[in-house]
Specification:
Elements (H helix, E strand, L loop, with lengths): L1 H8 L2 H14 L4 H13 L3 H14 L4 H13 L3 H14 L4 H13 L3 H14 L4 H14 L3 H17 L6 H10 L3 H13 L4 H4 L14 H7 L5 H10 L1
């Protein structure tokens, strides 16, 4: 319930209350701590976020989803080497789980290591051919590497066309990532606005400090202005008065 209230209802106070109740009733459920940590990711309390994802991984140290989420917490809290090692261990031990693969691919891509990101996107495609973001990731890597450029551009054009026409539901975060990497920032910002207007979960995620996710954009002031209807600033202002 707390996760739904956070991402779909944008009721941050109710979300926190639900997570606290869940922990009280079952203090050993790893994913409660994991998702509660993501609440603190959204409200930009990264130290508390790390504390909670640490509690999650202590309860399920071999769960690949929790490993990937905790790795993000480590990275944003200044432990990138530990974060990378954890994700790579998750990939080694759980080679069919897409989340650690995606996390590592995004980090490689952000670092400009497209040749290392490419096989990870291809592996995800092989595991889950319908993953549209894996198709986009492969195509974008090929463009950056100057390989199979016509085919890669055609793949991206098809994704963009389907999203713009509404023919297929394409994640807004992916659209932001594609337009940003194609050098089309205005189109990317329009998808931020679209996320708010359509009440996509992305509108909550975009408040976080993470700069390596698909939906991240450089002009934080502009993003913050677009996100005002989500109510995060008002909620945090109320917390500060207490």
């Amino acid at each position: 319930m707390g996760y739904i209230q956070l991402l779909y209802d944008w009721d941050f106070a109710a979300s926190r209350e639900s997570f606290e109740k869940a922990i009280k009733y079952n203090p050993n459920h790893a994913f409660t701590y994991c998702w509660y940590g993501q609440y603190f990711q959204v409200v930009k309390d990264d130290k508390k976020r790390l504390e909670l994802t640490q509690m999650a991984i202590e309860r399920e140290p071999l769960n690949p989803v929790i490993m990937a989420v905790h790795a993000k917490s480590l990275k944003i809290n200044g432990a990138p080497d530990e974060a990378r090692a954890l994700v790579e261990r998750a990939i080694e031990n759980h080679s069919e789980c897409s989340l650690p693969l995606k996390r590592r691919a995004l980090w490689y891509f952000k670092d400009g290591k497209y040749a290392k990101a490419l096989p990870l996107y291809r592996k995800i495609k092989a595991l889950q051919p319908d993953r549209i973001w894996a198709q986009a990731g492969e195509a974008m890597c090929l463009l950056k590497l100057g390989e199979d450029e016509q085919k890669a551009q055609a793949t991206l054009d098809l994704i963009l066309s389907k999203a713009d026409s509404g023919e297929e539901l394409i994640p807004p975060g992916l659209m932001i990532w594609i337009h940003r990497n194609l050098g089309e920032p205005e189109k990317a910002y329009r998808w931020v606005k679209h996320s708010v207007e359509r009440r996509y979960p992305l509108a909550a995620w975009l408040h976080s400090n993470d700069d390596d996710d698909e939906g991240s954009l450089p002009d934080r002031i502009r993003v913050k202005k677009i996100l005002e209807p989500v109510g995060m600033q008002k909620y945090k202002a109320g917390l500060n008065k207490k």
